[in-house]
Amino acid sequence: MQINQNKRKQRLILLSFIASIVLTGLKFFAYYLTSSNAILSDALESIINVIASGFAFYSIYLSSQPKDQNHPYGHGKIEFFSAGFEGALIVIASLFISIEAVKRLLDPKPIENLEQGALFIIFTIFVNLAIGYRLLSEGKKSNSLALAADGRHLISDSISSVILILSVVLILLTGLVWIDSVASLFFGIFLAYSGSRLVSQSVAGLMDATDPILLQKVVETLNNHKKKHWIDIHNLRVQQYGSDLHIDCHLTLPYYWELSNVHEAIHSFENILKASHSGETEIFVHADPCLPECCSFCRIENCMVRQQVFQKDIDWDVEKLSKNEKLYNEELAHLKQ
Questions:
Q1: Quick count: other Cβ atoms within 10 Å of Cβ 336?
Q2: Residue 331's pLDDT is what?
Q3: What is the pLDDT of residues 257-308, one digit of tens each?
């Protein structure tokens, strides 16, 4: 299943790469017909699509490679680097586009054949929207940042092209040539914002920043499959590298269990988490023995070593399970108050 998913991701990003090359050629031809600065800006930004899609293809190929001696945690982090690289290129392109827009405002030039040029741009809008939506959908499904980033880029490219078409319509209706340069300037600002967001996400991933949505999903899985012998879970950490998921936590189990029982319980715990994720999942569980204080929250019935009466079940949430301390310490403090 994982192999088929990787192949599907590679085919999609290859489709994006080929389409980007063709559409970039069409946009430059539209600029050749019109001499429109806004269309030139769109064409220059499409060069970024080509470079980014090519790098994304390589990153997805590399991230799908198995772990090796030099990369014991796999190659998934390359997707963060790919998204950051794409974002940086977009920001650079936005600066160039903005500078050219200001130059055209100060020194306007005639625009020709806008109707013909607009037809080419409209065609690229539909193609980019279709491919971008598919990439974004598959990227979210497979937890691929590189695929999702390329999809968002194509969709944003489509949105900016729509704005470009609107500016062309305004020029045709009003005859005001300066609208072309103003539209190009706004286009550059929009690209700068889009690119900076990609860079921010990339840096967060490379720095192993917590993904609250991903962490919440894991907590919900644990709550939905909560076992009576899972007395306590704490120090829960979740990281996503490409489509690979890494989870580690401390799991409190009955202190009197034999090692074989502990092993079986942890194996079952891992299988539950793995079943909730479509990609590879690596889990490290540190088993803690229960203490007398745990009895107040332990749900094991007819426990022969129980020293305290059961008082309440602990509600598991992201904040509690992420702390590096047993939950009963916090709950006992609340009860004493």
A1: 6
A2: 53
A3: 999 999 999 999 999 999 988 777 899 999 999 988 888 889 998 888 999 8
Q: Please give the Cα distance from 66 to 58 (Å, whole number).
A: 15
HSE-CB for 198 with a 13 A CA cutoff: 30
The residue range of the domain holding 251 is 212-336
* pLDDT per position as a tens digit, 149-184: 778 778 877 877 777 777 777 877 887 777 777 877
Q: Are strands 244-253 and 232-241 parallel, antiparallel or unpaired?
A: antiparallel
**Hey, what long-range contacts does 205-213 have (CB within 8 A, 24 or more apart)?**
205/77, 205/79, 205/80, 205/83, 205/145, 205/240, 206/77, 206/80, 206/81, 206/84, 208/239, 210/238, 210/322, 211/238, 211/239, 211/240, 212/318
Q: Give the number of other CB atoms < 10 A from CB of residue 9.
A: 26
Distance (Å, whole) CA 242 – CA 232: 30
User: How confident is the model over 178-191, as a mean pLDDT?
Assistant: 79
Confirm whether pTM is higher than 0.85. no
Q: Which residue, 22, 24, 5, 9, is CA-closest to 59? A: 9
In the listed set 141, 175, 206, which residue is the last one of a domain according to the structure?
206
Residue identified by tokens 């491919």 is 131
- Structural domain ending residue among the three candidates 174, 206, 238: 206
